[in-house]
Amino acid sequence: MLDIKLIREQPAFVKERLAIRNFSQPQLVDEILDIDEQRRKTQVAVESLKQQQNEASRQIGLLMREGKKEEAEQQRQAVTAWKSQIAEAEATLSQLEAQQQQILVQLPNLPAALVKPGTSAADNEVVRQGGAMPNLPPDALPHWELIKKYDLIDFETGAKLTGSGFPLYKGAGAKLQRALIHYFLEYNIAAGYTEYMPPLMVNADSAYATGQLPDKEGQMYHMPADNFYMIPTAEVPVTNIYRDTILKEPDLPIKLTAYSPCFRREAGSFGAHVRGLNRVHQFDKVEIIQLTHPAASHDTLDAMVAHVEQLMQNLQLPYRILRLCGADMGFTSAITYDFEVWSAAQQRWLEVSSVSNFESFQANRLKCRFKTTEGGKTQLVHTLNGSSLALPRIVAALLENNQGPNGIALPQVLVPFMGITHIG
Q: What is residue 411's DSSP assignment?
């Protein structure tokens, strides 16, 4: 959530940065300022009334000691009247604060200076590209055919058990999932991340704190009886570990990693581009998260991008890194780098990771602060997260790019976890 002080002091700057996103409601900034002015005036009025009430209460005691009961009674009546006025003013203040909050949560994060304007994903910038493109024969199979050929995933039975988009992994397919998860976690732990295994459901406060509510409510599976949400990513529960927390400056950075299944409704997703593992409702993902000092967050972002890039190189997959334009960024992000892997049989790029710096936007909702060593002041941390990695499209690319006459060749880093060099 944006800081009201920033909006109050630099409204033109806020509108300028929101325009980078093609944000369609810049008038909300003016509405927030109007309400904020009313709120502040009302706050002053409440404080003034309370001062008058307190002074009258003090006078009652003095008058009673002096035996001036009639004058004391007049002051009591005045106090009663002030109490009524204060109650009305506080009710107005609460209403204004709720209105301001309701509009504030509709404003997305401000894009960082490096983020360029654009209208769609076509305007994203390719930062760099790596890995060797595979040279496959004309009869190379897409991953959904390879899955059938080597009996790795049963989509039909998964649909029977739950519904379309809930794959049932089996045999070497299940073991490949487990191997990738194990490898990703060990790689992250070696880089200094602490492993967590979070709950797969969160309450509304947790979903709100990381920005899923109210922005992505329709994309999450919701259980109304308990008002719990199935997590769309481990980012939600793991980041919320530090909700309503004041850290010490030496505690930073805090580095966390977690594996979890992820659940997304993906409403409105149809067509050939979502076939097979390209888009599913339940998938596995390993996440990395950092809480950092504001002065270090953009260097931390670069380090996290390099961390994920090394993973891609270790898997020997062709990839490219894109810096997203303003219009294509997520609601909470200040800057995002997407990783895409080349799917040789499909002849297209597939997104497999997003690495984002949210700066103080999430932390403001989380109420996660740190106390400075010098001066003891508190300020918001910066939060960052990245997929490290999401499995479905990684599996799709591994199967397609490494198919050959002896089956599916496995990257060397996965052999110790799989115990074989080829599938098939």
A: P
The CA distance from 246 to 370, in Å, is 5
Instruction: Tell me which long-range contacts 56-59 makes (C-beta under 8 A, separation of at least 24).
Output: 56/82
* Total number of residues shown for the chain: 424
Sheet bearing 335-343, strands edge to edge: 125-130, 319-323, 335-343, 348-359, 382-390, 282-292, 254-263, 194-196
Task: Output the six-digit token pair for 77.
Answer: 């009546």
Q: Helix, strand, coil % (nearest 5) of the chain?
A: 45, 20, 30
> Which residues, in sequence order, are CB contacts of 412 under 8 Å at separation 6+?
316
Cα–Cα distance measured from residue 424 to residue 408, given in angstroms and rounded to the nearest whole number: 6
CA 401/CA 396 separation, integer angstroms: 8
Neighbours of 306 (CB within 10 A): 11
Rounded distance between C-alpha atoms, residue 418 and residue 123, angstroms: 40
Predicted TM-score (pTM) of the model is: 0.93
What are the average pLDDT values for consecutive 10-residue runs of the chain, which has 424 residues?
A: 97 97 96 97 92 80 77 77 87 96 96 96 97 92 97 97 96 98 98 98 97 88 96 98 98 98 77 79 98 98 98 98 97 98 93 98 97 94 98 97 96 98 96
DSSP, residue by residue, 119-168: SSGGG-EEEEEESPPP---TTPPPHHHHHHHTT-EEHHHHHHHT-TT--E
- Whether the link from the prior residue into 108 is cis, omega within 30° of 0, is no
Six-digit token string for 16:
């300028």
What is the pLDDT at residue 117? 96
Q: How far apart are CA 348 and CA 406, in angstroms?
A: 25
Measured CA to CA, the distance from residue 229 to residue 208 in angstroms comes to 11
Helices 171-190 and 297-314: crossing angle, nearest 10°? 140
SS (H, E, C) 302-361: HHHHHHHHHHHHHCCCCEEEEECCHHHCCCCCCEEEEEEEEECCCCEEEEEEEEEEEECH
Q: 């007049």: which residue's tokens?
A: 74
What DSSP element (H or E) covers 85? helix 69-104
